[in-house]
Amino acid sequence: MSDSSADDLDVETLLERIGFDPDTSVLTRRQAEVLALRERDVAQADIADRLGTSRANVSSIEASARTNVKKARETVAFAEALDAPVRVEVEAGTDLYDIPSRVYAACDDAGVKVNQTAPELMKSVSDAAGDAISGRAVKRDLLVGVTVDGGVRVRRSGFE
User: 0.85 exceeded by the pTM?
Assistant: First the structure.
């Protein structure tokens, strides 16, 4: 749905259908409402009219909600890295092309199967590491974890 107005959507039903629970969410109900509407291309001005507030306030609510979502995702990634039975420390200066063999060897030792080919693994690590990798060079220490189901999780040391 795009170019919707806030009045066209029943936000209560939408949040219920998505499974929003204010008791277990890191988002406030208002933040969830704003995100649900924004993700359906409703303009901030229309949301402000619906909620009886200013567009600037809606913008602030949206920014806070997106920050909270980012923190929640980071927390989940951290917890998954802790739980990963395979953890490979990759030091700064390592060649990106050397990472798959190290990860595969650690997985073999732990009896865990990686669900990615070497090129896919390098791309996953590079994408997740962001600016910690430049070209083929690892610029910051990384921790590559592999979950019991073969999922790959990458953490940067000193992650912000």
Answer: no
148 neighbors 106 (Cβ within 8 angstroms):
no
- The residue ranges of every structural domain in the chain are 6-79, 84-156
CB 12 within 8 A of CB 29: no
What is the reported pLDDT for 158?
A: 54
Kindly state the tokens that stand for 41: 């291309």
Give the domain 6-79 fold: Arc Repressor Mutant, subunit A (1.10.10)
Reported as a single tens digit per residue, the pLDDT across 44-80 is: 999 999 999 999 999 999 999 999 999 998 888 788 7
Give the neighbor-by-neighbor strand order of the sheet with 86-90.
Answer: 86-90, 142-146, 152-156
Domain 84-156 has CATH 3.40.50: no
- DSSP for the chain reads --S--GGGS-HHHHHHHHT--TTT-SS-HHHHHHHHHHTTT--HHHHHHHHTS-HHHHHHHHHHHHHHHHHHHHHHHHHHHHH-SEEEEE-TT-BGGGHHHHHHHHHHHHT---SS-HHHHHHHHHHHHGGGEETTEE-S-EEEEE-TTS-EEEEETT--
